[in-house]
């Protein structure tokens, strides 16, 4: 992936409008205002103070969670258009990342001061959460100022971590994951060079590797042990922790480890006690149980003579994806301040009761640091609408037949009753039955194509009308209606590359237009990507009281449908995607990494593009799956030449096809 450092002074068109807005907010007409848009899309609930709606109906980003500084995301997209940077594109906001890191620092500092706690706090960022170099470098640079570090979990990540911390010798570098002899030796040699590096023992055999390498290089290394706690995790990753968890030593194994280390003269290197309770912990009670258990284990190890100085509580600090502030998979029922205070208070209480020193505290927060700082923006390239009015020409022609089939008459009768006082539930049931009968008759050869098409038109019209009238109070018998009647909005992106958790674990992400928010949306839709896989869709969105299955969107102008020549782009923002989505994305349909831009605020309060990271080309993704682009190009050119020689292509057609093939290999994998 190529990357280019850019320092662009925005043009007048690029600059944000002058009036500041508070997150969530602004006036409008009596019928529909941008306040209504902010409420509809629940911006203040999931945005964490980082996003809001402008008076102009565009979406704003507030890097410092305050209204004094802002970036208009729609203006950024217009600026990218002018620079020919296409969608999908990730807009990274380093200012939000910095604010998240400093806010975590503030929360623990306040808790430590208020509790008169005797230890310090540090966070190490797990680079697996987002391994993009620009993100990791930003974390490192900010972390160097506030005492944070990095965490790695594999041999490649170890090499990356050592490179990132070159020149930052005091920065903590915690090494998790399974380790072989080469891994351990690399860590010990890095420690001899002066790095503040701590390997965490995941299985007893790693202690023997540490012993061998320590003897070989005549050094007493510092290291930690991960404890396999009894406290179970919660949520999607509950199975990754507890007594059946993948990593760590049981309490009995830890006792054996202490004896082993004493016998080998290595106990002085045991500086950290580590645990892991899972990712996206949504219930604060689980955090409390884990902290209490690990703190008591720390006390016992200190009493046994282990010089443990650090308690590492691993990851788990959640993100409120749906804004509900509840103990559910896509939310969390606690604040950052409560999280910090509970850890500090409970460790202090246990230590004070036992009369042992307060240890330094460490967490491995990644999701909570980077999720808010990336926004995926994609363009709607088309839509399929199920109209509340049928094709009257088609219906009239079908009804004009000598003997219209009964299902058609029944469907038409249901449609006519929409204007009466009939029970909508009964009307819909009649239309649904008529369509089922029509399908059966057609399959048996007893209904012509026009009559079946007319039945479908009438059914969709009845269903759409029923959904529009009953949407806020759907009866149980019609809860499936939004899924069945929702319009399809086709977006230029791949769920499998850019939003894998939505497909893989039903993760909910906030999604909304980044402009036209001063207009009331008139359509309900689900999103379908450009892959050829039917699973490439998004149909779960944050809603009041839980997840909703459709998203309110705007209709295109009648004279300029989405994606057609002359139409204005309709941009959707997908938020809280900074954690894991870029790292986990795959090459389904050979759709590669997207374009990414880093947008910051300058001293004058105007946004500028700090860096552009170009998405992968067709040539690059073909190489990943062992195709030779040059060989492919040579063969296709031969095929084109043969076509021209045989008269199947004209010379100009052959030249155009050659040019298309050459340009495509160098071009973006998405639609341009």
Description:
- This protein is an alpha/beta fold.
- It has 4 domains: about 70 residues, no CATH class; about 270 residues, Alanine racemase (TIM Barrel), CATH 3.20.20.10; about 90 residues, Methane Monooxygenase Hydroxylase, Chain G, domain 1 (Up-down Bundle), CATH 1.20.58; about 50 residues.
- About 40% of the residues lie in helices and about 15% in strands.
- The strands form 4 sheets. Strands 1, 5, 14, 15, 16, 17, 18, 21, 22, 23 and 24 form an 11-stranded mixed sheet that branches. The chain has an 8-stranded parallel beta barrel with strand order 6-7-8-9-10-11-12-13, surrounded by 6 helices. A 3-stranded antiparallel sheet has the order 2-3-4.
- Strand 23 and strand 24 form a beta hairpin.
- Helix 14 runs antiparallel to helix 15.
- It starts with a strand and ends in a 6-residue tail after the last helix.
- The N terminus is likely disordered.
Short characterization:
The protein has 672 residues and is of the alpha/beta class. The chain folds into 4 domains: 9-82, no CATH class; 95-365, TIM Barrel; 392-482, Methane Monooxygenase Hydroxylase, Chain G, domain 1; 619-666.
- Total count of helical runs of at least 4 residues: 23
Our Rg estimate from Cα atoms comes to 30 Å
Return the structural class. Answer: alpha/beta
Largest sheet: 11 strands, mixed
Chain oligomer state: single chain
CATH class of the largest domain: Alpha Beta
Distance between the termini: 18 Å
DSSP strand count? 24
> Which blocks of ≥5 consecutive residues have pLDDT under 50?
1-29
| Mean pLDDT metric | 89
CATH superfamily of the largest domain: Alanine racemase
CATH architecture of the largest domain, by name, is Alpha-Beta Barrel
CATH topology of the largest domain: TIM Barrel
The shape, in one word, is globular
- Give helix % range: 40-55%
Strand content: 15-25%
């Amino acid at each position: 992936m190529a990357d280019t450092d850019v320092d662009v002074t925005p043009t007048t068109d690029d600059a944000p409008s002058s009036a500041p807005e508070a997150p969530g907010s602004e006036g409008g007409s009596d019928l529909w205002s941008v306040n209504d848009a902010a409420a509809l899309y629940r911006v203040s609930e999931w945005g964490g103070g980082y996003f809001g709606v402008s008076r102009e109906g565009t979406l704003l980003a507030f890097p410092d969670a305050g209204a004094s500084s802002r970036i208009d995301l729609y203006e950024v997209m217009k600026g990218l258009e002018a620079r020919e940077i296409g969608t999908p594109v990730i807009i990274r906001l380093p200012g939000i990342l910095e604010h998240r890191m400093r806010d975590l620092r503030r929360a623990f500092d306040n808790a430590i001061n208020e509790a008169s706690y005797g230890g310090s706090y540090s966070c190490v960022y797990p680079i697996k959460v987002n391994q993009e170099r620009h993100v990791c470098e930003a974390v490192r640079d900010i972390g160097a100022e506030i005492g944070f570090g990095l965490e790695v979990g594999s041999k490649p990540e170890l090499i990356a971590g050592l490179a990132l911390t070159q020149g930052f010798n005091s920065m903590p570098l915690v090494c998790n994951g399974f380790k072989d002899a080469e891994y351990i030796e690399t860590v010990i040699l890095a420690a001899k060079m002066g790095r503040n590096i701590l390997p965490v023992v995941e299985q007893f055999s790693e202690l023997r590797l540490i012993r061998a390498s320590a003897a070989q290089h005549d050094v007493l290394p510092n290291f930690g042990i991960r404890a396999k706690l009894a406290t179970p995790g919660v949520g999607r990753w509950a199975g990754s922790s507890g007594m059946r968890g993948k990593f760590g030593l049981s309490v009995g194994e830890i006792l054996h480890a202490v004896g082993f280390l004493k016998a080998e003269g290595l106990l002085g290197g045991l500086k950290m006690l580590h645990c892991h309770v899972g990712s996206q912990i949504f219930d604060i009670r689980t955090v409390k149980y884990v902290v209490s258990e690990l703190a008591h284990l720390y006390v016992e190890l200190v009493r046994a003579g282990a010089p443990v100085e650090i308690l590492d509580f691993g990851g788990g600090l959640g993100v409120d994806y749906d804004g509900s502030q509840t103990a559910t998979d896509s939310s969390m029922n606690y604040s950052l301040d409560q999280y910090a205070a509970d850890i500090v208070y409970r460790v202090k209480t246990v230590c004070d009761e036992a009369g042992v020193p307060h240890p330094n505290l460490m967490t491995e927060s990644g999701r909570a640091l980077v999720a808010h700082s990336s926004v995926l923006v994609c363009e709607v390239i088309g839509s399929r609408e199920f109209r509340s009015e049928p094709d009257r020409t088609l219906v009239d022609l079908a009804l004009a037949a000598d003997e219209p089939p009964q299902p058609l008459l029944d469907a038409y009768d249901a449609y006519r009753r929409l204007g009466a006082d009939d029970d909508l539930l009964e009307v819909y049931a009649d239309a649904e039955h008529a369509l089922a009968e029509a399908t059966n008759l057609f399959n048996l050869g007893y209904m012509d194509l026009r009559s079946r098409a007319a039945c479908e038109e009438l059914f969709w019209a009845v269903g759409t009308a029923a959904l529009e009238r009953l949407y806020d109070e759907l009866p149980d018998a019609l809860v499936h209606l939004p899924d069945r009647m929702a319009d399809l909005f086709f977006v230029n992106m791949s769920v499998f590359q850019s939003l894998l958790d939505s497909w893989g674990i039903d993760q909910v992400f906030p999604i909304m237009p980044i402009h036209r928010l001063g207009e009331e949306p008139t359509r309900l839709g689900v999103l379908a990507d450009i892959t050829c896989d039917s699973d490439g869709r998004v149909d779960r969105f944050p809603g009041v009281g839980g997840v909703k299955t459709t998203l309110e969107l705007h209709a295109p102008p009648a004279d300029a449908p989405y994606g057609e020549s002359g139409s204005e782009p309709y941009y959707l923002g997908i938020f809280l995607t900074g954690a894991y989505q870029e790292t986990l994305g795959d090459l389904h349909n050979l759709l590669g990494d997207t374009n990414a831009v880093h947008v910051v605020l300058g001293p004058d309060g105007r946004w500028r593009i700090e860096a552009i990271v170009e998405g992968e080309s067709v040539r690059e993704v073909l190489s990943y799956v062992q195709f030779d682009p040059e060989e492919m190009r040579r063969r296709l050119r031969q095929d084109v030449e043969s076509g021209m020689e045989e008269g199947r292509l004209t010379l100009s057609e052959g030249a155009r096809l050659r040019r298309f093939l050459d340009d495509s290999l160098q071009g973006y994998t998405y639609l341009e």
